[in-house]
Fold this sequence. Notes:
One of its GO terms (molecular function) is oxidoreductase activity, acting on NAD(P)H, quinone or similar compound as acceptor. The chain is mostly helical. It has 16 helices and four strands. The protein has helices at 3-7, 20-52, 68-77, 89-105, 133-154, 158-189, 194-200, 220-223, 225-238, 250-253, 263-288, 309-331, 337-363, 370-390, 402-407, 427-446; strands spanning 115-118, 121-124, 205-209, 212-216. The strands form two sheets. It has a two-stranded antiparallel ribbon. It has a two-stranded antiparallel ribbon with strand order 3-4.
Amino acid sequence: MNAVYLAQDPTLADFGRDPWWLVLIKIVFAFVFAVLATLLGVWFERRVVGYMQVRPGPNQVGPLGLLQTLADGLKMAFKEDILPRAADKVVFFFAPTISVICAVTALSVVPFGPMVSIFGHWTPLQVTDVSVAVLVLLACSSMGIYGIVLGGWASGSTYPLLGGLRSSAQMISYEVAMGLSIVAVFMTAGTMSTSGIVAAQGDATQLTLFGTDIPAPGWYAILLLPSFVIFFIATVGETNRAPFDLPEAESELVAGFMTEYSSLKFALFMLSEYVSMVTMSAVTTTLFLGGWRAPWPITLWEGANSGWWPMLWFFGKVIALVFVFVWLRGTLPRLRYDQFMRFGWKVLLPINLVWILVLSGLRSIEDWDTRGKLIAVGIPAGVLLLVTLLWPGRKPRPKVSVQEQVNNRPHGSFPLPPLDLQIPPSPRTRRVVAEREPANVTAGSESGEV
């Protein structure tokens, strides 16, 4: 890595020196990015899911249907704002804003690019950074769930309360797995600063492994593959996205915690969901995909990681992760709640604990390069984890006929509906059939039929 490349990496000393107007520009940029990402994210999801289902999706309002989300937002703004009689008015009003504010706040410590010159001031493309920025991300992720929980409780209705309780259990289950995945990151990077973690994922270097020189990748998605897989699964669970959208399961809870919301409050909840999806994609990019650094083979160009180009690579990675979110929604069915909780506590958490233990042991070996140890152990462990998660489970049970199910029912069970699922004929139908039967008998006897 040359001196020009190193000069682009911001450090903690580069923050806190900007004039107030430059800080304001960065804050406005982060907010505008969140709002535009929501508008385009909804359009992107509807178009991608439409393509998967062989239908056009939104294509009438604006070029390629780009203004459809804006039209839907205006429609929701002018709808009647209904306040349930049994609702806690103050909490019911502020709950959606909690989710939105926490999702947007997390973007303040996400690096969008390296050091650049803005109106003559040399500044990093990041609102701020602290030595414990990763904890800020975890705090924002945890606090965002409180908006959902409080919204469900303050509605004064059964289904929203159940959705809020599901969301709280979901947070407890998957926050632990997410935190352990981040532990592996700052164990390897040696810092909890987001800019420092991006700097630690530098370009590939030559690594001597078993007497052979090989290029060693720097992205933690490769070096810490088990942590990356578990972190992304936990991210999908934290953002209440399918197949983990149980707090708002339409088939069970009507709309879950959002059932009693309408107008702008409903729009704020929808905004928070899509902002959280984009924010967690940006966080995943920062922690595991090299942040704003260009992927290979773009890195062969010397100016790939300098100037304003890194913002393009950063947005490209975020869009790719958002596509995975949409892909999962259009592909996988929703899990049952017991399957969801079992997967978090009995699968992700034990695997993550074992991986952290293995990672600690690898770092204690002094006569072997750390990156080589991670490559030799992390990649096979990640592949084994993926195979384990994707491998079909227990053998399918043999199909049992309906008649066998009826015969094996315990004594005193509730009566079954007709096995042919046909509704019994109404009294009028039976009367009409009875009136026609004598005529049919007479016609048959005249023709000589017995």
